[in-house]
Amino acid sequence: MKKPSIVFFDIDGTLYTEKMELPPSTKKAVKALKDSDVYVAIATGRAPFMFESLRQELGITTFVSFNGSYVVADGEVLDKKPLEAEQVAYLHKEAVESEHPMVFLDHEQAVADVENHAHIHKGMGDLKMDYPPLNKFYYKNNEIYQALLFCGTDAEENYSTNYDTFRFVRWHELAVDVVPSGGSKAEGLRAVANHLGYTMEDTVAFGDALNDMEMLKEAGIGIAMGNALEQVKKKADIVTDPVYEDGIKRGLERIGLI
């Protein structure tokens, strides 16, 4: 008999609405999956500490975080890919010279390199997070799995050509994620699936944003939310309803998992 599927959910725009709310129908759908012995996991660009309460609420212990740079299965760290420290130092120097603020993240916390910057307030506020504490050189003594670089699209292009060990993924009009090159949510899915004894054919992935495109393309079934970007929908096998219109529930019903 074929194993039950393993379903990965992005968070922002997928599990959460724009207001960072979990629709009741989504919570019920996740519970129905688990009651049916379907394995449930998260795949997000967020750091682990940023969605701990959501994991507790949904009873999820397996996740791909930092867009694939920190992967955990049932509480066990499977894979971690910190940014190269020397390159982070070069990037930070250039960002300071260009007056582009940064936030550095490990698996436990986020810190900012400047105080009270409007762009950091906006970006973190949109994630319903407080302004990070100040620690300008946190990266010197800690493994950094992701950095947030607050800059426009023109500056982003300049950075991306100068750092081939980094990948720059825009998640906000004011900011990009800085993650290791070669890493992706898709790689995280593969690591979890292999560890748990699934194949990629057994995987289902839900997402809505640019950092979900590879995951949706490589999963056994990729499902884009109705509120997803158009280029993301093109990479998906199925497009469900928006998150705020019971999109998770309807997508799972459509493929017969609930």
Q: In words, what does this structure look like?
A:
By secondary structure, the protein is of the alpha/beta class. It has 2 domains: 6-80 and 183-254, Rossmann fold (3-Layer(aba) Sandwich), CATH 3.40.50.1000; 85-180, 2-Layer Sandwich (Hypothetical Protein, Haloacid Dehalogenase-like Hydrolase, Chain: A, domain 2). It is 31% helix and 22% strand. It is built from 9 helices and 13 strands. The strands form 2 sheets. An 8-stranded mixed β-sheet has the order 5-4-3-2-1-11-12-13. Helix 1 (24-35) packs parallel to helix 9. The chain is globular and about 55 Å long.
Indicate the mean pLDDT. 94
* Domain tally: 2
Q: Enter the CATH topology name of the largest domain.
A: Rossmann fold
Q: Biggest sheet, in brief?
A: 8 strands, mixed
Our Rg estimate from Cα atoms comes to 18 Å
User: Strand share of the residues?
Assistant: 15-25%
Going by helix content, strand content and strand pairing, the class is alpha/beta
Beta strand count: 13
* Alpha plus pi helix count: 9
Overall shape:
globular
CATH architecture of the largest domain: 3-Layer(aba) Sandwich
Unreliable segments of 5+ consecutive residues? none
H-E string: EHEHEEEHEEHEHEEHEHEHEH
Provide the CATH top-level class of the largest domain.
Alpha Beta
> Taking strands numbered 1, 2, ... along the chain, how are they ordered across the largest sheet?
5-4-3-2-1-11-12-13
Keywords: Hydrolase
Pfam families: Hydrolase_3
GO cellular component, one term: cytosol
InterPro entries: Cof (IPR000150), HAD-like_sf (IPR036412), HAD-SF_hydro_IIB (IPR006379), HAD_sf (IPR023214)
